[in-house]
User: What shape does this take?
Amino acid sequence: MTNTDLQDLKDLWTRMLGELPAPEQFELWLSLHTPETVRVGIQKTAMKNLQLNRTMTTDRKIRFASKVMLTKTNDPQKAAGQRTQNPPAVVPTGTEAVRGNSVSC
Assistant: This one.
């Protein structure tokens, strides 16, 4: 992390969410997460705040952003930008039963 990263993230928060949290909050986030993860947390918080007609308190914004960041950091697939997928469906052949339905020949 550089001072530029820190200032860019603070500027992003101010532009999108208004009042900054305490400076220690950004230091904590950056000690736990990459600058990219913090950026995503701020952006998703801004989207949520818009959905709620900009009614989120500063405390709620911090909590929501923290949860987004923790989820992204703790889920390797989300961190890699991948989504989980359901396993491919198995198509029965012949006379196999399909979830309670019987197939007769």
Remarks:
- The chain has a mean pLDDT of 83.
- The helical segments are 3-17, 23-32, 35-51, 58-74, 76-79.
